[in-house]
Task: structure prediction
Amino acid sequence: ARVREQARIQLEGRLERRPKYELLLPGPGAPVDPERGLASLPPPSNNDLFLDLEGDPYAFDDGLDYLFGVLEANGTFHAFWSRDEDGEFTLAAERQAFERLMDFIGERLAADPTLHVYHYAPYEPTAMKRLMGRYGTREDEVDSLLRGGVLVDLLRAVRQSLRASVESYSIKKMEQFYGFVRE
Result:
């Protein structure tokens, strides 16, 4: 039924030549499940952070995360690049960028224990675990983020909340629904 309904809305979107979506609401009289969809999102904090990592899986032997980007709720962006003092991307610089990211999040979390770090899809927590293991650093900090429910996957909430006329729920495909225009 889920696959059929997904195919239906994709076809409707193509035929109507416009993006379409439907909210996935509980049936009449059914309770809202606090663990699913938009209801699963935590209360907002003025200090919430939004995290996005960019990487190249073919760099070096095991890939490289070259940019750790954090957007604050107030619109301030912080970029932690995996560049050394000569401007080259290196594994040593990746470690430093990862440590700086974890320290940044840790400082913000110490100042406001109610904040959350939002990300879209499981790449960010997976990368944190991989980098923690690769470099043997910030184990307690990563563990605390994972166990403390600080990391919030927005893709999970989106997929459980709506059905859209796109073939992929990647953030780039979903931009048309919230009016984001790339520059």
About this structure: The first strand starts at residue 21 and ends at 23. The mean pLDDT is 96.
